[in-house]
Amino acid sequence: MSSYADRLNALRAQLAQDALDGFVVPLTDEHMSEYVGAYAQRLAWLTGFQGSAGTAVVLPQEAAIFTDGRYTLQVRQQVSAEQWDYVGVPATSVADWLGAHAPNGGRIGYDPWLHTRAWVEEARKALAEKGATLVPVRRNPIDAVWADQPSPSDAPLAVLDEALAGKSSAAKRAEIADWLQARNADAVVIAALDSIAWTFNVRGDDVTHTPVALAYTVIHADGTADLFVAPEKVTDAVRQHLGNAVRIQDRAAFAPALGGFAGKRVVADPGTAVAAIFDGLEAGGATVVALRDPVILAKAIKNPAEVAGHKAAQARDGAALSRFLKWFEETAPQGGLTEMSAADKLRAFREATGRLKDLSFDTISATGPNGAIPHYKVTDESSLPIERGQLFLIDSGGQYGDGTTDVTRVMPVGDASHEMKDRFTRVLKGHIAIATAIFPDGTTGAQIDGFARRPLWEAGLDFAHGTGHGVGAYLSVHEGPQRIAPPSYPGGQALEPLRAGMFLSNEPGYYKAGEYGIRIENLVHIVERTIPGGDKPMLAFETLTFAPIERSLILPELLSPEERAWLDAYHAEVLTIVGPQLESAERAWLEAKCAPIG
Q1: Which GO terms describe its molecular function (predicted)?
Q2: pTM of the model
C-alpha cells in the first residue's frame, strides 16, 4: 500500500469484511490527546494529513476529511481531492455530515476508545434519522490493515524534582481526595496524560514533544491511587518516588478494572474520558458522575515554583532565539537557506543551551506562501527555499526540565512591502492590546479576544484561529481549560474564567493566502493587579517571553504613544534578560534591535 488511495481501498475492503458501511477516524488516542504517539497516527496514515486536529469519515462511495480554519490550506495541499471531500468545522459537524451522507439503514463503525460519549450520542442521534446505526468496533479496522503500525513507546518514566513541581504528589492526591469527599464520590478515573504526569510528578517520553507516559489512574477518596502503566516503564527510582500509596498495575488491566466499582460513585470527565470508560464503569455497576477532571484547573494555575522554573526556561530560550534571529538576518539574504535548514539551525541553538529535552511541537518554519498556513508543518517534501522579498515566519518552542516555551517571530528577507509592514504593525497593535489588558477577575478569554482583532478589523482583516492557548509547566504546549478565542471556539474553552496563575499565549496574526503569513507570539502569566480607587479584584498579563520583535517591519506612525511606550519597555527588558547571555557581537546586534522605536 504505497499510496494513500491504496490505503483507502484497503480500509474499505476491511469495512466490508467487518459488515460495516462506514468508519470514523479521529486524530486522537485513548486519552483524547491533541498530540499522539506514532502508533495512534491513524488519520495521517490514511490520508496524508499532517495537522494536529482533524477527523475523517469513510463510506463505501464517499470519503470526507474535517478540519477547522487553521488547516483550510494545509489539508488541500496534503490530502488528495480525488479521494476526499474537504469539510470545514464547526460550520459542519461530523455527526451532521453522517446524518446527511450515511446510507439508509447503514452500519457506521467507531472505536469507543477514541471518542467521547457526547460525540457518540450526537452521532447516534444524527444517524437514527436515516435509519442507520452507530456500531462500536472491537478492533479498529485501520489497525487491521496498517501492516507496519508502530508499537506504543516503551520509554521509562522519570521523576520530576519536587523543587520544580512545587508540591509533592502525596499533597496533590490529598487535595483530590478532599475534592472527592466533598462530592460524596469514591474515586475518580483520570485518563488525560498530562493530568497523570502532573499528579504523580513524573514525566515520560511516549508522545513526541510532550513529556508524558501512556497510563491511566484511579484516585480514591482516601488519597491512594492505582496507576495503570506498562510495568517495564517503572524504574526502582519511580517506585520509590510513588510510595506504597500508589499501586502500580499493568496498563492492560485498566479496562477490566473498570468493572470492579459496583455500588461505587466514580467520577469521570466527559471531555477526556472516552466512551469506553463510561461504558465499562456502568457495565460493572458503578454510578458514574460526569465532572471535569479535578486536575485540569489545579494544573492550569501555576504555583510559585512552576512560575520560577518557567521564567528560567524562557530566559535561556530567548537567548537561543535571539542568536538564531541574528544568524538568520545575516544569512538568509545570501541565499541557500530552506525552511527545513532554518528549523534545524534554531534547534541547534536551543540544543547548545545543554538543557533542551525536546521541542515543544514541530517547528513551523514557513516562508512566503507557506507562512499563510497557520499550522504548517515543514517536511523534506514541502520545504521551500527562503528567498528575497519574502516574509519568514518561525513558530517554535522548547521542552526544558523547568518549563515549556512557545514563541513566534517574523523576519523579512531583504525589503518588505508597505502592505506587509502595515499588516505586521496591526498584528503588533493587537498583541500589545492583549499584553496591556486589565480585566476583572472571572473575565473569559472570549471577552478579550476582540482586543487583538480590532486593529485588523479596522482595515477589513481578521485571522482564523484563537488568540491564545494555555501552556503547561514542562508539559503540554497546549493546555486547558483557559483560552483566548471567539465565543464559538470549539470545546467552549474560550468561556472559561481566567484566573491568576494561568499561562497563556498571546498570538494574533494575519495570513494572505498564497503570499505570506504574520504572527507575533509571546507567553503571558495572569497576575493580580490593584487599581487605586477601584472596587473590583483585577487581573493583568505579565509577559514571559523575551526576544526582539522585528523593528524593520513596524510602521511607527501607526502606533499610539502608549503602544510605543510598551514596545520600548518590552525591548528594554529583552536587553536586560537576554543581553547578559550573549557574546559581544551578539549583544551589539541585540542592542540595535532593542533601541527605542522613535
Answers
A1: metal ion binding; metalloaminopeptidase activity
A2: 0.94
